[in-house]
């Protein structure tokens, strides 16, 4: 919009300016502001003054509350709308009462330009930015006497046109906290809010993942009326997760990463990254790593490596289901089935098929190696190939689902605890007596007794399934988050039994963890993200091992088990020495004064 700035018309002549007497304004036959109400002038003025300041105070208080509660300022209630209308009416009256001359005088004394209305036929203001002042304006500022410019008629203010009334700087509302959006982005946001454009289609329509996430976030805030100010958007590569890790992103969650170690495992040292928000966890695991390190390190053995998938099929009779069971489990048919399975990937290799019958329903648990990938997608593709082959041989076979929960994925299950899933690892260490006393602050006999009554007897009393440990899931979850594993698979990956025994005539402590179903990979999924990839690189297991496929994933599984061993050792020692509550009060509590936080809020 283009508005011409005009020189300010002096309200005082040179003579009157020195005397301080204003000129009389020209009389015009236009409505006066004092005619707004049929009341005496002083009552009308008092009424509008009171309304102006009351409404301003109300709106300022409301804006302050919205900013504190992260409520968008553009969300207006009925009371606020009425208050704004009252504010505009009072401003119109006050400007009309004091006259255009008062406004011009005020602006002239503050060395700024005044805004003039062209005439009654002009519908649009034209703005021309000009920082230069004329000689008249400079002289007036310095108090010099200058000849007045020609008298020009000023169009009277019309109360019915509030849109053309400019508020002074002191009357402007607080700025809204809104992201800078282009006209195109604003149009797309409105389309998403109105349901015309699906949120999930923004990436494909715009071709810019960052822009799509920004628009989706703003649309979500407008739809829900809730602020997402604390959820960061910048600083993340949204292209890297497109079609792989997350759909319809609006930001990312920050989780701090701590380092425990060095963990001396199988003669090598590892600095273990742990992503967690639980205080004491990294510090406790670090203490366990120290105890293992000064005692000569820990040793690990990989017992089994095979990911599983178990489809469920149905026949018309239980006899037909049993016939397929015998066919699948017959060693003479294994070569044919493995040939069909292995063609799905150059890394997938069928290891075996375990069957179970429930009536006329047959569950077939396929197990296969998957290289350095965790392997769920790989084994599923191989299973689908075998199902297609079996269906061609058995037309009466009805495939109910490619997963029948006999796998079993992301659920506590005895089949995983007994048969294993993913990588099965056992890790052990002998902790010397002086280390138990000086580093762990407890006694060997106390640890052995506590482990028997807590991890073994106590878990049995609770009917635990694979939970014969102190807190294996704490360490597994932290390492999984840091290295890009599937955090939901913490359920079966945390299956662990912790054993402690006094050795060397009762002086030293033998401690071990047996974990039958650690499900990890170093390629695919979240392992490709920058932060998680950096953590894998820290451990020396980033990506696939070309020389020995699968060795990186197997090494990561042993590191997970070694970290669990350190965590178990430290926590059990803290409980045995009675330090658990004290340490959590020191490291797992906020340092803020909660009572003051509540009072200030």
TrEMBL record:
<protein>
    <recommendedName>
        <fullName>3-hydroxy-3-methylglutaryl coenzyme A reductase</fullName>
        <ecNumber>1.1.1.34</ecNumber>
    </recommendedName>
</protein>
<dbReference type="GO" id="GO:0009753">
    <property type="term" value="P:response to jasmonic acid"/>
</dbReference>
<dbReference type="GO" id="GO:0016126">
    <property type="term" value="P:sterol biosynthetic process"/>
</dbReference>
<dbReference type="GO" id="GO:0005778">
    <property type="term" value="C:peroxisomal membrane"/>
</dbReference>
<dbReference type="InterPro" id="IPR023074">
    <property type="entry name" value="HMG_CoA_Rdtase_cat_sf"/>
</dbReference>
<keyword id="KW-0256">Endoplasmic reticulum</keyword>
<dbReference type="Pfam" id="PF00368">
    <property type="entry name" value="HMG-CoA_red"/>
</dbReference>
<dbReference type="InterPro" id="IPR023282">
    <property type="entry name" value="HMG_CoA_Rdtase_N"/>
</dbReference>
<dbReference type="InterPro" id="IPR004554">
    <property type="entry name" value="HMG_CoA_Rdtase_eu_arc"/>
</dbReference>
<dbReference type="InterPro" id="IPR023076">
    <property type="entry name" value="HMG_CoA_Rdtase_CS"/>
</dbReference>
<dbReference type="InterPro" id="IPR009029">
    <property type="entry name" value="HMG_CoA_Rdtase_sub-bd_dom_sf"/>
</dbReference>
<keyword id="KW-0560">Oxidoreductase</keyword>
<dbReference type="InterPro" id="IPR009023">
    <property type="entry name" value="HMG_CoA_Rdtase_NAD(P)-bd_sf"/>
</dbReference>
<keyword id="KW-0521">NADP</keyword>
<dbReference type="GO" id="GO:0015936">
    <property type="term" value="P:coenzyme A metabolic process"/>
</dbReference>
<dbReference type="GO" id="GO:0016135">
    <property type="term" value="P:saponin biosynthetic process"/>
</dbReference>
<keyword id="KW-1133">Transmembrane helix</keyword>
<feature type="transmembrane region" description="Helical">
    <location>
        <begin position="39"/>
        <end position="60"/>
    </location>
</feature>
<keyword id="KW-0414">Isoprene biosynthesis</keyword>
<feature type="transmembrane region" description="Helical">
    <location>
        <begin position="81"/>
        <end position="103"/>
    </location>
</feature>
<keyword id="KW-0325">Glycoprotein</keyword>
<comment type="similarity">
    <text>Belongs to the HMG-CoA reductase family.</text>
</comment>
<keyword id="KW-0472">Membrane</keyword>
<comment type="function">
    <text>Catalyzes the synthesis of mevalonate. The specific precursor of all isoprenoid compounds present in plants.</text>
</comment>
<keyword id="KW-0812">Transmembrane</keyword>
<dbReference type="GO" id="GO:0005789">
    <property type="term" value="C:endoplasmic reticulum membrane"/>
</dbReference>
<dbReference type="InterPro" id="IPR002202">
    <property type="entry name" value="HMG_CoA_Rdtase"/>
</dbReference>
<feature type="region of interest" description="Disordered">
    <location>
        <begin position="1"/>
        <end position="29"/>
    </location>
</feature>
<dbReference type="GO" id="GO:0016104">
    <property type="term" value="P:triterpenoid biosynthetic process"/>
</dbReference>
<dbReference type="GO" id="GO:0004420">
    <property type="term" value="F:hydroxymethylglutaryl-CoA reductase (NADPH) activity"/>
</dbReference>
<comment type="pathway">
    <text>Metabolic intermediate biosynthesis; (R)-mevalonate biosynthesis; (R)-mevalonate from acetyl-CoA: step 3/3.</text>
</comment>
């Amino acid at each position: 919009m283009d508005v011409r700035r005009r020189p300010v018309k002096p309200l005082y002549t040179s003579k009157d300016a020195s005397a301080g007497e204003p000129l009389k304004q020209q009389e015009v036959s236009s409505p006066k502001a004092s005619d707004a109400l049929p009341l005496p002038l002083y009552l009308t003025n008092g009424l509008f003054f009171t309304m102006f300041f009351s409404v301003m105070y109300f709106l300022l208080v409301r804006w302050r509350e919205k900013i504190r509660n992260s409520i968008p300022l553009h969300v207006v209630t009925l009371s606020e709308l009425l208050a704004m209308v009252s504010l505009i009416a009072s401003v119109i009256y006050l400007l009309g009462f004091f006259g255009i001359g008062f406004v011009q005088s005020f602006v002239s004394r503050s060395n700024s330009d005044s805004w003039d209305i062209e005439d009654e036929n002009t519908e649009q203001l034209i703005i021309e930015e000009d920082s230069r002042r004329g000689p008249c304006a400079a002289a007036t500022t310095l108090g010099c006497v200058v000849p007045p410019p020609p008298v020009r008629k000023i169009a009277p203010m019309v109360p019915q046109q509030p849109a053309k009334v400019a508020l002074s700087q002191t009357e402007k509302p607080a700025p809204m906290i809104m992201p800078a959006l282009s006209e195109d982005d604003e149009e797309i946001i409105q389309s998403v809010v109105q349901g015309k454009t699906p949120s999930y289609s923004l990436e494909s329509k715009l071709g810019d993942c960052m822009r799509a996430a920004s628009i989706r976030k703003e649309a979500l805030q407008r739809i829900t009326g809730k602020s997402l100010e604390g959820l960061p958007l910048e600083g993340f590569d949204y292209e890297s997760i497109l079609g792989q890790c997350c759909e319809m992103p609006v930001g990312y969650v920050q989780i701090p990463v701590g380092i425990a170690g060095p963990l001396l495992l199988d003669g090598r040292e590892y600095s273990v990254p742990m992503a967690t928000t639980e205080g004491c966890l990294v510090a406790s695991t670090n203490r366990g790593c120290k105890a293992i390190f000064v005692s000569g390190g820990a040793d690990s053995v990989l017992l089994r490596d095979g990911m599983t998938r178990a489809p469920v099929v149905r026949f018309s009779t239980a006899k037909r289901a049993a016939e397929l069971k015998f066919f699948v489990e017959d060693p003479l048919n294994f070569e044919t089935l493995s040939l069909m399975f292995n063609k799905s990937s150059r890394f997938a290799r069928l290891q075996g098929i375990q069957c179970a019958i429930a009536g006329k329903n047959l569950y077939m648990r396929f197990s296969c190696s998957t290289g350095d990938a965790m392997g769920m997608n790989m084994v599923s593709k191989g299973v689908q190939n075998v199902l297609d082959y079996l269906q061609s041989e058995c037309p009466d076979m009805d495939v109910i689902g490619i997963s029948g929960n006999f796998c079993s994925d992301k659920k506590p299950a005895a089949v995983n605890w007994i048969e294993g899933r993913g990588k099965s690892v056992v890790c052990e260490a002998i902790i010397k007596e002086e280390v138990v006393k000086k580093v762990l602050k407890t006694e060997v006999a106390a640890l052995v007794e506590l482990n028997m009554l807590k991890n073994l007897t106590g878990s049995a009393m609770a009917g635990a399934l694979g939970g014969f440990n102190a807190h294996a899931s704490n360490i597994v979850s932290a390492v999984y988050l840091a290295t890009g594993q599937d955090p939901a698979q913490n359920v079966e990956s945390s299956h662990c039994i912790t054993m402690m025994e006094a050795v060397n005539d009762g002086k030293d402590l033998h401690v071990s963890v047996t974990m039958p179903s650690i499900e990890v990979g170093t390629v695919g999924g979240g392992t490709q993200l920058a932060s998680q990839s950096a953590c894998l690189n820290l451990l020396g297991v980033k990506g696939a091992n070309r020389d020995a496929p699968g060795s990186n994933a197997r090494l990561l599984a042993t590191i997970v088990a070694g970290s669990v061993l350190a965590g178990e050792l430290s926590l059990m020692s803290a409980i045995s020495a009675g330090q658990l509550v004290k340490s959590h009060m020191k490291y797992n509590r906020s340092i803020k004064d909660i009572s003051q936080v509540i009072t200030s809020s």
